[in-house]
Amino acid sequence: MRHPVLSRVLAALALTVPAVLLGAPAAHADPVSQTSGFYVNPYSSPAQWAAANPGDGRAAAIRASIAQKPMASWFGNWSGDIGGAVGGYVGAADAADKLPLLVAYNLPGRDACGGHSGGGAGSVAAYDAWISSFAAAIGNRPAVVVLEPDALGDFNCMDQNRINERVGMLSRAVNQFRAKAPNTWAYLDAGNPGWIDAPTMAQRLNTAGVANARGFALNVSNYYTTGENSGHGNRIAAELQRYGYTKPFVIDTSRNGNGSNGQWCNPAGRRLGTPTQLGGGAEMLLWLKTPGESDGNCGVGGGSSAGQFLPEVAYKMIFGY
């Protein structure tokens, strides 16, 4: 569903995009210009909590400041039939003429070194089949997909055989979206500014097939400021020129309003960042992690499990305390 007026606006905006973004090959159609804005999932965890707790004094703020904002929906081994889950979500967005944000999070040995979000597909073959079904379920409909948070940063506890296995899966995943979801922009996760240096991450991205993706994603589920991520992203993009190309990037701004205090697992005192938008120091600023969803049994989320919605944490994130 193409919107001529929006297309003209986006074309004008493209003239102001930093030069580092302009080297990305336009292999796929533009899903932004095919839609009329970003999709708001009416069944996100904060939306469901607010609907189930209308008398709670925190519900109105959580509904207005979080649940009614465009955020990504995450898909993994909890999603059941992945084709049905992804197809239903993307179909609902397409019916509303909106652009859905999706995160694929199902690599075997997921979060192997972090240890709070373990799981994933049971084997390499199972993952290959899963991600193939994921891409096929999107089909020709417009979408934005971020592939496998932490996958290229989480190497320190892995031997070379496991690393090779992982980058192979990522490279094949990128190719699945290229082949089966031509109106999808796929971004490989590239960690955050406090984790892996730009030359190393560029090398890992190249090995994992970022040349065939739209670009890379930064700060997923983390807290570094947009400025810190923008600088880091531009350094990675410049390093990719060593391999004969460069790429645009997106930044997760869902929880970076107060920046990072050096902790990654449910740190106190964080705040919502800039809501999902085009531009702003990257190709897009996106709410990829749902504010209020726990990082695991740690920090202010003590006693919770990864992905569990914590209304008090969400409420404090609105006001930054």
TrEMBL record:
Protein's UniProt keywords contain Transport: no
InterPro entries listed in its UniProt record: Beta_cellobiohydrolase, Beta_cellobiohydrolase_sf, Glyco_hydro_6_CS
Documented EC number(s): 3.2.1.-
Swiss-Prot/TrEMBL keywords: Carbohydrate metabolism, Cellulose degradation, Disulfide bond, Glycosidase, Hydrolase, Polysaccharide degradation, Signal
Catalytic residues of the enzyme: 150
UniProt signal peptide: 1-29
Membership in a protein family: Belongs to the glycosyl hydrolase family 6.
Keyword RNA-binding: no
Enzyme class at the top of the EC tree: hydrolase
Organism (species): Actinoplanes couchii
Name listed for the protein in its UniProt record: Glucanase
